[in-house]
């Protein structure tokens, strides 16, 4: 019986792998670079669009490789900000979301790395969806390509791995996609404009530190206390804050970057005097910035259990907390909620039909 040939996914290949692949096909490595440019510079979605590639190579590619694209199902724009949410369908019928957040002269793309998320953070809609599977390199890269096409002639200036899923639980794929978007694209988007956000997977924080990528790293902190974190982020029971802080110190030292602490304000949970004192103490242990996030509306998704107790801290108190946290050594940002009206803000990405 003849076995079916597995097609090579071109968007999962790094530039050198694509060059080697062209050599395997009997062509020069230069052709690999040309194909790469067609995909990333000209945003080609089909081998036939690659006009300066010889016809016989295009034929070989069409029979032996694939240029899989996510299917764009819908886009939703925010009335109050210009945030746009893109809903995509994967080849096997799963739905994922990406978001573009415009700020001054920046366009930040928020990428998903998993279908759903296994971590069940109590303030997050994605966590409620449960976990289906990891995304492939091609599916992560294609979010970038599809959104680049959609916003053309504008271009993506910043990338955050902060959409659906925990990037460091899909480590190898995340690292490869970072290598493509950072190194293979020739620093078009520099390392200081790419942030990976994690709920805290210490051994993979160390791995990322050793990868040489030196991208920015954010920890979804949300409380300086282990017991509170255990409740709002159950992954803390497995990987404690203490272990994560040790890994983050290593990351900061190795990459010479500051760690971003993401801190979503939850009434009575992490906005108390003792939280402020403990957070200041934590910030003194390593080079950090703190991103204070007013909690987005979560009323629509909490039905029972501990999640039902979560309420946003009033905005006035959020501002006061941020001001009091700030010292000459602690840099604090107070983030505007972007895209709350289209459920595209932090913790709100979830596929409606699954909820
Ligand atoms: S906050 Fe992030 S890690 Fe936590 S459940 Fe949501 S997507 Fe997963």
Primary descriptors:
about 350 residues, alpha/beta, DNA polymerase, domain 1, TIM Barrel, 2 domains, 14 strands, about 35% helix, binds iron/sulfur cluster
Task: Describe this structure as you would to a colleague.
- With 355 residues, this protein is of the alpha/beta class.
- The chain has 2 domains: 8-66, DNA polymerase, domain 1, CATH 1.10.150; 71-354, TIM Barrel (Alpha-Beta Barrel), CATH 3.20.20.70.
- The protein contains 12 helices and 14 strands.
- The chain has a 10-stranded mixed β-sheet. It has a two-stranded parallel sheet with strand order 1-2. Strands 7-8 form a two-stranded antiparallel sheet.
- Strand 12, helix 11 and strand 13 (288-294) form a beta-alpha-beta unit.
- Helix 1 crosses helix 2 (29-40), helix 5 (137-151) packs across helix 6 (171-184) and helix 7 (202-210) packs parallel to helix 10.
- It is elongated, with a radius of gyration of 21 Å.
- The termini are far apart.
- Iron/sulfur cluster binds at residues 117, 119-121, 124, 126-127, 164-166, 199, 220, 347.
């Amino acid at each position: 019986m003849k076995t079916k040939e597995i097609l090579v996914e071109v968007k999962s290949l790094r530039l050198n792998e694509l060059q080697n692949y062209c050599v395997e096909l009997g062509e020069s490595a230069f052709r690999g670079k040309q194909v790469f440019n067609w995909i990333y510079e000209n945003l080609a979605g089909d081998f036939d669009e690659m006009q300066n590639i010889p016809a016989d190579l295009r034929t070989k590619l069409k029979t032996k490789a694939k240029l899989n694209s996510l299917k764009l199902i819908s886009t939703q724009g925010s009335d109050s900000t210009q945030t746009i949410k893109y809903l995509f369908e994967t080849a096997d019928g799963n739905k994922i979301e990406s978001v573009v957040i415009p700020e001054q002269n920046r366009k930040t793309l928020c990428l998903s790395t998993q279908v759903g998320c296994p971590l069940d953070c109590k303030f997050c809609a994605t966590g409620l969806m449960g976990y289906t599977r990891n995304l492939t390199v091609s599916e992560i890269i294609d979010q970038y390509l599809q959104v680049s096409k959609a916003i053309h002639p504008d271009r993506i200036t910043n990338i955050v791995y902060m959409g659906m899923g925990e990037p460091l639980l899909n480590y190898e794929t995340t690292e490869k996609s970072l290598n493509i978007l950072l190194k293979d694209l020739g620093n078009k988007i520099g390392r200081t404009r790419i942030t990976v956000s994690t709920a805290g997977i210490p051994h993979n924080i160390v791995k990322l530190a050793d990868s040489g990528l030196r991208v920015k790293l954010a920890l979804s902190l949300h409380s300086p206390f282990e017991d509170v974190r255990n409740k709002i982020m159950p992954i803390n029971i497995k990987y404690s804050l203490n272990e994560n802080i040790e890994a983050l110190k290593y990351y900061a030292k190795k990459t010479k970057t500051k760690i971003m602490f993401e801190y979503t304000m939850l009434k009575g949970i992490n906005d108390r005097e003792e939280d402020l004192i403990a957070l200041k103490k934590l910030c003194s242990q390593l080079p950090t910035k703190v991103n204070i996030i007013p909690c987005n509306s979560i009323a629509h998704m909490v039905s029972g259990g501990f999640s039902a107790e979560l309420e946003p801290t009033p905005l006035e108190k959020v501002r006061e907390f941020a001001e009091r946290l700030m010292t000459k050594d602690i840099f604090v940002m107070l983030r505007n909620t972007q895209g709350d009206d289209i459920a595209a803000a932090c913790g709100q990405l979830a596929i409606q039909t699954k909820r």
